[in-house]
């Protein structure tokens, strides 16, 4: 049965009486132009064009549109002729802007340099947030990062200046917080080279995580392709209160939909409960939508977004959005592909984990569940912040909890770290006293950067292999992600719950019902946290950390990459398809399917963290050959349940995955990887696709792919294929050779066939599916999307 959107009338009530219907286009033509951001005064918000395109598409489809459809279809390259079918057709879109974090920007800019184009075609920015390791505290860690990463920062700054890309220096903050504060606005279509780009959906934007090659397309002025998303509706009723926070909404949704339940879909939140959530709270929910595989998530424009825009110096955009309010909410009567309903009055605080972000537990249950499964109860470290939860409100609610403990003479029993989301947040919480409270309770304020959330953490309180528990307000908790220790049990919760658990020092503490013991021996309960959504005074911007591209252009500037650098390497084109079938590809590794992980029966994950680890490897993100030494070193080999231990079929000896791959390549032997479900879950890092291609891989065959990784593989000339019958996964043995047949007639919707030769002389034959369209087949034939771009110039 069809499900339906919230009525526009209710949204208009939420926005106030100033909202009016659109009826006289001349009124809008007369309006003054409004800049997209203060950094790009000559690029303007174009709601008129968006509205025009939406009207064309609505008339063509003859039905009401969801909000996400309005924004996505409103950015179609050809709204008149584009074939539109949810979940089936590929859309050609014109995004408004591009954002890149420093770890992925290196490869994106190297690819853009290879394109030979003089300037980016759309507003674009680089954000330095990934290369700062948490070690001893914010200022010293930042200084150290600037020193050891000077070559990379200089490359990104000079490349930005030459090609017209804005550059946010190290210390500016996390890319997604900077976007929310400066670049996101209702109705914008933004792509970013980070999987948590959907954070901007909290401001009514469609913000989508992509690989660097997709960013290059948009920066080159080429229409960007996206498979037409399905739309999952999440209807919120009731009101958030007490210990329940916006984070608990997405923790609950993750438990319902699982890590792949949102694949191929945009999650669209609506309903009367939306108005009880702050703008930054909505951003938290959209941010962690990446953990359910969603293309992105979005909320409808309302007064909470208007207030945030005004407080961040963008009142002119808010006023314009008010005039186009009907455009920025779903049409009455629109249909969703599926629906989830959550009553916020009944929602309880949650904590998810360990080892996967969709293992959801109400706080009331986690203690007993931990005991049953043998998870350590002692909380070693509590970590708050990250791109998911580092807003002013988040820090205020955490400080509210910490202040209660301090007033009773208590400090944290666990180690405690705080990561501000941006320089603006750092300066403002320092001015308003939150930093002092969090420090006094035992916390250490880290640099304005990703830090431990992405493995940039020099952790020394436990040894590798030592079983322990940490709790974070982050988004991901894959095995070994935060600290490179596979025995660390990482749990994800709201910042206020993490703060409470750090004070109590134990996982089985439920602040809703449990008591703490004050310094004088009396028992007391923590009161539910309370804090201002936004500062009463204006935000303190802190230090100026933005570098504008030169007004005169960068044609006279040089971007040099030393041939002896270990951090940066210019790219060489990948070889073209030779014109025939792929014969006798060697199985490099068959990634394990189901297995027991620390007492949990889970599907064997092969995330992008397993394919191309972060942490200490981040320093090689601009050097393809060096970063390739981490390829698949975290994947579990089904042959022996070992990690980074596979048999070299040419020598009979066991070695590391990258070493064996290099040996095969040197001997002219191409290879294939076989995997399980949701292969490539997690980060947008295209290195997980570049590395296999660089080391001689031709094909990845799995039961299913995560969206971004599948696209990244296609962009680099790889063949991402799926078993037509998932049971065929079990027919493949680690020493098999595989031939891919039918490439001479490779066509959209037409399966390829495979012949699997076993070492005992027998063979199996079966069908493999793909999702290539005609343009993507051209990428494969040219050797990569970048090769094809250059052919067309």
Top keywords for this entry?
alpha/beta, iron, 793 residues, 19% strand, disordered N terminus, 25 helices, six-stranded mixed β-sheet
Written account of the structure:
The chain has 793 residues and is of the alpha/beta class. Helices cover 30% and strands 19% of the residues. The chain has 25 helices and 36 strands. The strands form 11 sheets. The protein has a 7-stranded mixed beta barrel. Strands 7-6-3-4-5-23 form a 6-stranded mixed β-sheet, with helices on both faces. Helix 5 (102-115) crosses helix 7 (150-163), helix 22 (687-694) packs parallel to helix 23 (707-715) and helix 24 packs across helix 25. The longest helix is centred in the middle third of the chain and has 16 residues, at 392-407. The radius of gyration is 25 Å and the shape is globular.
